[in-house]
Structures are given as structure tokens and as C-alpha cells.
Amino acid sequence: QVQLVESGGGLVQAGDSLRLSCAASGRTFSTQSMGWFRRAPGKEREFVASITWNLGTTYYTDSVKGRFIISRDKSKNTMYLQMDNLKPEDTAVYYCYREERSSRNWGQGTQVTVSS
Description:
Blueprint: E1 2-7, E2 10-13, E3 18-26, E4 33-39, E5 45-52, E6 58-60, E7 68-73, E8 78-83, E9 92-100, E10 103-106, E11 110-115
Parallel strand pairs: 2-11
Antiparallel strand pairs: 1-3, 3-8, 4-5, 4-9, 5-6, 7-8, 9-10, 9-11
């Protein structure tokens, strides 16, 4: 079993920064990648960013490129999402996931609210 615990969400103003964390515990030795999705009110779930666990290769959706940075600390089994220059359209519940072969584990979600 793998558990994912997110933290770092909150209420900020446009232009501010937040750092989300996702800590994995349990049977994590086969992690292939981790990443973030988000779901804004009234919208479908959207891919935000991901990182391959071994090489650290990163991927971003276009709307966050240049503002968000995904990283991981393998020694802590923790992934981070540094979010800078936040915009109101970034308001959503952010969910982290961990991928192993064809399966995914999900965190409980953390709310990010950006006021204009």
C-alpha cells in the first residue's frame, strides 16, 4: 500500500507564491513518476505537471510553464510543486499522484485559492 499526503495549499493573492508538497509512504520502491492534477470549480480535472522519479524529467501543461516548477527529493520520497506568479485561474483543488507500472495512487487533495 502507498499513501500520499499533500500539504501547502492556501489562500493567496495574485502574484504570490505557494509550494505544495506530496509525501509518499509505504511500498514506494517502484515509483516511476509522480505529478499533479487540479480540478477547478465547474471544470474537468486537468494535468498540471509530472516528473519521472529516476531521471527527474519534467512535463508541464502550457498554462503553468515558466511559473511552476516540479521537483522531487528521492531521499524523502517527497515531490514538490513550486508555484510562482499565481493567477486567479490557478484556483483549484490540487491532487498529487504516484505512478507505478499501470497503477496510480492519489492524494486527498489540497485547496489553492488565488484572489485577484
